[in-house]
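I'm stuck. Protein, please.
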Amino acid sequence: MAYGQEKGGFYYWVSEEQMEAFGRLSDLERLKWLEEAWLFTVAARTPETARRQDRLRQGLCISGKETPP
């Protein structure tokens, strides 16, 4: 599928330069990068997304209508 023609969700592309830059980071720097990305996604998520994530952590279905088998 060509860029810009995706249905729903999102599209993210990483350049070779970005991959190389990440590869040069130390383990500690990579962990810090990961934590910062996680903090951003937690801060940017919608209340509905937060509820669904909480339900998944509890082993429940995200819709709240049924529990998984």
About this structure: The chain has three helices and no strands. The first helix runs from residue 16 to 23. The CA atoms of residues 26 and 32 lie 10 Å apart. The radius of gyration is 17 Å.
